[in-house]
Amino acid sequence: MTGTHNLHNACGVLLHGITSITIIRARKRWRIAICSIRFMVSLAREIVSKGKIHDSRILRSHFYTSLALEPSSSHRGGTSSTLLHRITTVTISKAHKRWRIAYIVISSLRLMVSLANKIIVKGNSHESGISKSHSYTALYISCVPSIDQTRLTEMVLEKDVVDLRRLGGVEGIANALKTDLEKGINSHDEEVRRRREMFGANKYQKPPPKGLLLFVMDAFKDYTILILLICAALALGFGIKEHGVLEGWYEGGSIFVAVFVVVVVSAVSNFKQERQFDKLSKLSNNIKVDVLRDARRYKISIFDIVVGDVIFLNIGDQVPADGLFLAGHSLQIDESSMTGESDHVEVDSTVNPFLFSGSKVVDGYARMLVTSVGMNTAWGEMMSSISGDSTDRTPLQARLDKLTTSIGKIGLAVALLVLVVLLIRYFTGNTRDKDGKKEYNGSQTDLDNVFDAIVHFVAAAVTIVVVAIPEGLPLAVTLTLAYSMKRMMADQAMVRKLSACETMGSATVICTDKTGTLTLNEMKVSKFWIGQESVEEDSSSGIAEHVLKLFHQGVGLNTTGTVYKPASASEPEISGSPTEKAILSWAVLQLCMDVEKLKQGYTILHVETFNSEKKRSGVAIRKTADDSIHVLWKGAAEMILAMCSSYYESSGITKSLDEDRAKIEKIIQGMAASSLRCIAFAHKQISEEETGCPNDKTTRHLLREDDLTLLGIVGLKDPCREGAKKAVETCRLAGVEIKMITGDNIFTAKAIATECGILDPNHQINGEQVVDGAEFRNYTHEERMERVEKIRVMARSSPFDKVLMVQCLKQKGHVVAVTGDGTNDAPALKEADIGLSMGIQGTEVAKESSDIVILDDNFTSVATVLMWGRCVYNNIQKFIQFQLTVNVAALVINFIAAVSVGEVPLTAVQLLWVNLIMDSLGALALATERPTAELMQRSPVGRTEPLITNIMWRNLLAQAFFQISILLTLQFKGESIFHVRQEVKDTLIFNTFVLCQVFNEFNSRSMEKMNVFKGIHKNLLFIGIVGSTIILQVVMVEFLNKFADTERLDGLQWAVCIAIAALSWPICWIVKSVPVPDKPFLNYPKRAKVIFRRITNFFNQMESPSFKLGIRPGKSSSRRIAYRMG
């Protein structure tokens, strides 16, 4: 107190305004001096009061002297008077509202810091410097780490233990990074921001996204577009030469404009979808991790991690950054993503404390200290180098590519044939101009006119190719997938692999978990048994004290959850898995368990973490008071019971299980039949003989699994989700079988399955419907294949059992979807046709192995994904039907017209406009249809079912035949029917053809239903596209005559065009009433080819020497040949 008292006398009036100062002593020295803001306020008031005594326009100083105190002892006495002298000589200008005193406040702040430094020096030399006041003012002061990032990065990457020890070990690194290992870093935003600026953000650099211009350039790489551009350039040159600039640019210029519009629309569509995929990719990479900040556990984004953070790691987690092992047990890491080695690496605090970003936790749990993030990690550099565009093609896209190639070849053949016919007719003098004269008269024809005609023919042929090639199919798939992915995100499903969208529509079996998927995953302890006695709520006072203490140990020390008691809240904050949280919460609130006190009294020697295969966890501990060693087990009730030889009663008496084992088993079965998850706790004290050699480095042998004493059994209630039963019924009506695979015992599994509708309560449940995992595993392969389709529930299953079931179902020809959330579920998720991981409880390993992430862990969302999968497939089929109708009609019309009259009725510009309607706008309209209830009333699409079904062939051939008949009639009889010129007739053909596509777009909305308008009001985009198409068609015909090579039509002609096009609706209704066979049409030619080949082989055998020598096939062979021929 003496040093502080002297300083107070020296400062005099200055320290009069300071009413409270708190100095917090932290880690061996005083670091922070908290000075009251009231000092500045008091100082300002004093200056103002001084200024009021004098005239407002007194002497002005031409310079300002900084306010600071030298630390020299010779100036201590005069510090106060000097300060006051300087303050009174400062002029405050009333003309500027007398408040221009900012420089004084700043200088005063500097003075305050200087005085605070003096106080700290004094405080360090005495036990207590300044008496504490009852009022405190918090002042955040940032701490600057004193270590180089490069050294940290190299140390971890090279696993340099020597350098780590040189820096003081993990504790030395933590001190250098200003991290409290027990509390973490400060959660203040400024602290996090400063660390991010110093050490970088936890993000890796990616190449800049592909710009719109690059998509445009990609579109121009299409060889048909390039040929059209060449033709357009030639037509433009010849046109200008023949007709001049004002009139000659129309044909070539219009082709240029049409090609440009097609290219831009395609490029913009691809650009937008690419942005959509990038956005979804960022969402899928946004992993949530648990960090320790200000002694509290927070769940934050992986991108918000900074150097110095303390991270919690559990089984299945991805290590989010490079770092060092702090504390934990049995930590096994899969570093194959970094090193390529499949062996798991053990990480501990002595030999190998190094953790790499991107590696996976396969066993154990730990806390780690982050030392490097983002591009300072090897994972960041690697991901940055491979984060380019993905070129993966989905199976459906591959099938569409083949279809596009096949149709393109047909279109190319037709186009070449048309070109040959046009050239032959031209050079043989069979084509005439508008005046009726021959266009080619041998040597009398100008060479420019010949070239002009050839260019015109080539442009027409190339345009036919453009229309024939269904370039809109890839665009339709992209649009459908992008639209569906976006909508599925809103329905709580995030697609990681595009192929899953389409494959889900073919799913025939869904193997689902129970906990969290069919149930709410909101655990609550509803039953508690000690021995054969049920302990009611708030009745823990009747339990013997030593039994209660053992139970506290079994709950509080054998757990991966944490309990935090904030000073401001009455309820503790508990984190961990739903099961851990439920048990911890119950033990803290009902059994008055104090976790912190427990941890202080015991040392953990070895931990075996819970996994879904063993279904139990154990811990070996040493009691600090007497060095005795205890083993505590927790897990599935019947498994823990099998490890026990005795049990505790609530009175504290220990009894043998020999006589009462069956009774306790009956208690477990009764709880399980009430849909309760049963968790048992057991204990054993290890004798000195059982502890083993004192020099033995491993403590695994301490976890004895026999001769335990049962402490008690808790029953956890996890109610079914509200919509689970309805979702199960929806899937069943859709032809999809639901199988529940759970780790719970068979009684709990039956109860939940019955409650969710998987098992029918009105029918007798037999052994074929419900099996135990071990029983299924021990079947022979033939038995499994025979019974697998009948099984609806598999209880006490291991991850291997789930894989085995998926393999059997796939061998049976099923398309299998599997849900999973644990690390051990990864093999089953990969083995399945569609892997569905859980977004809330799922580990990162499970998510990476899956195709779709169910964000809300709800089975209802699984049913929604199924519906969207069918919608994707259905929308693409709709567009194929629509596009092939246009392809067939356009090819036939142009070919027949070219052969018969030597010209095509649709010009290059008109065909490009039809191509735009068909490819881009049509795809956009039909690809954005939302799923309907009717989709879930169909059977799943089989693996071998053709992409173009019989129903599609029926619809598209009928519409194509109608359009061909009408347009060819107009081509050959239009002038006489309507009494119009040829130019008007060609416009009528063009207008009718476009309007037919508009009306057929409505027909394509449903391939089977008569009512094609149902739900159309929900798809505003479809209505907008159809409306825009009609408006643009009116503009093309009425206002862009030169550009589109059209003539204006009167009202009657428009009415005729609309009436003809509208006939497609009644034709559609009539055709849809015509039944079609189930066997695909295209299989008949294949079957005929097979029969023909077999008949040929038979006759070849008759001509063979053996046949002529009298050697005949056996009776069975003759029958087999006759059967094959039939």
Key terms for this structure?
1126 residues; alpha+beta; Calcium-transporting ATPase, cytoplasmic transduction domain A; Calcium-transporting ATPase, transmembrane domain; Rossmann fold; 9-stranded mixed sheet; 8-stranded mixed sheet; 40 helices; elongated; disordered N terminus; disordered C terminus; ion transport; acetylation; ATPase_P-typ_P_site; translocase
How would you describe this structure to a colleague?
- The protein is α+β, with helices and mostly antiparallel strands.
- Among the domains are: 149-192 and 290-386, Distorted Sandwich (Calcium-transporting ATPase, cytoplasmic transduction domain A); 396-482 and 868-1073, Calcium-transporting ATPase, transmembrane domain, CATH 1.20.1110; 493-519 and 721-857, Rossmann fold; 526-564 and 573-687 and 705-714, Calcium-transporting ATPase, cytoplasmic domain N.
- The protein is built from 40 helices and 28 strands.
- Strand 17 and strand 18 form a beta hairpin.
- The longest helix is centred in the C-terminal third of the chain and has 43 residues, at 859-901.
- It is elongated and about 120 Å long.
- The termini are far apart.
- CATH superfamily annotation of the domain at 396-482 and 868-1073: Calcium-transporting ATPase, transmembrane domain
Straight-line distance between termini:
114 Å
Low-confidence spans: pLDDT under 50, at least 5 residues?
1-37, 50-99, 120-142, 387-391, 1112-1126
The number of helical runs is 40
What percentage of residues falls in helices of 4 or more residues?
40-55%
Which class best fits the helix and strand makeup? alpha+beta
Percentage of residues in strands: 5-15%
Q: Which fold name corresponds to the CATH topology of the domain at 396-482 and 868-1073?
A: Calcium-transporting ATPase, transmembrane domain
Largest sheet: 9 strands, mixed
Mean pLDDT equals 79
For this structure, what is the CATH class of the domain at 396-482 and 868-1073? Mainly Alpha
Radius of gyration: 41 Å
What global shape is seen?
A: elongated
CATH architecture of the domain at 396-482 and 868-1073: Up-down Bundle
Question: What's the β-strand tally?
Answer: 28
